[in-house]
């Protein structure tokens, strides 16, 4: 503890501060080996600087996962790294006697939770919390976990089990474009920022084979429909409709060609997420037919089509 005598630190505290600085210099002096520290609990002394320098060194060496005890720290590589999520790597972590001894990876976390279910006499639900700031890679991490469980939670001898697991995985993945269209938006920090929370539940039978799944969403940022920050956009679906609707659909939905809309700022920006056809196809795969889709896109209030306003405040019709 810090002690002060007449406004000055005691000699023992001064020595402690000097010792910490020496430890920092010694630790950072071996920076060439920092990328080899795959667990932040091995960092000594533990300070903000040493932790960040360790993560920076591992990132530079294309090591994007680092353990921190029972927590996994994932850094977004912002580039494709196909070999990092290959089926062969999934099988390697699944077959390893001690997956925690392998390099830190989201597959190691997934395998450990799967084994926890298998090893318990009374099956207990396992939870993985994926958290982080906007653009950190939460959506991608969730997809990787679903793919991993679709591979490992299927009977190796049953073709039908594999088909069920693949079908469940595909339906969950097909739900992503729909949820992202209606719940994601372009923000200052992320072109595809989720403006809602998501809870994915994978259901296993007594043989630990995947038999079902459920997806729940919550805390949708509804205020974004009418109020967007400067240089940000509304939800993707509105831009998808305006850019991808056919001539007949525009007439049906009261969307004149070339019209501007006060609630759709920055429409000139073209994003990968603006593909209307991808959303419509995903809805079809989920069992939402074309007539139902048209009813969704033609928002109604009291039986009358709801029209948007122009930037000048004048109605479109």
TrEMBL record:
<dbReference type="GO" id="GO:0005524">
    <property type="term" value="F:ATP binding"/>
</dbReference>
<dbReference type="InterPro" id="IPR001609">
    <property type="entry name" value="Myosin_head_motor_dom-like"/>
</dbReference>
<dbReference type="InterPro" id="IPR036961">
    <property type="entry name" value="Kinesin_motor_dom_sf"/>
</dbReference>
<dbReference type="GO" id="GO:0051015">
    <property type="term" value="F:actin filament binding"/>
</dbReference>
<keyword id="KW-0067">ATP-binding</keyword>
<dbReference type="GO" id="GO:0000146">
    <property type="term" value="F:microfilament motor activity"/>
</dbReference>
<dbReference type="GO" id="GO:0016020">
    <property type="term" value="C:membrane"/>
</dbReference>
<protein>
    <submittedName>
        <fullName>Myosin XIX</fullName>
    </submittedName>
</protein>
<feature type="domain" description="Myosin motor">
    <location>
        <begin position="35"/>
        <end position="317"/>
    </location>
</feature>
<dbReference type="GO" id="GO:0016459">
    <property type="term" value="C:myosin complex"/>
</dbReference>
<keyword id="KW-0009">Actin-binding</keyword>
<keyword id="KW-0505">Motor protein</keyword>
<keyword id="KW-0518">Myosin</keyword>
<dbReference type="GO" id="GO:0007015">
    <property type="term" value="P:actin filament organization"/>
</dbReference>
<feature type="binding site">
    <location>
        <begin position="132"/>
        <end position="139"/>
    </location>
    <ligand>
        <name>ATP</name>
    </ligand>
</feature>
<dbReference type="GO" id="GO:0005737">
    <property type="term" value="C:cytoplasm"/>
</dbReference>
<dbReference type="InterPro" id="IPR027417">
    <property type="entry name" value="P-loop_NTPase"/>
</dbReference>
<dbReference type="Pfam" id="PF00063">
    <property type="entry name" value="Myosin_head"/>
</dbReference>
<comment type="similarity">
    <text>Belongs to the TRAFAC class myosin-kinesin ATPase superfamily. Myosin family.</text>
</comment>
<keyword id="KW-0547">Nucleotide-binding</keyword>
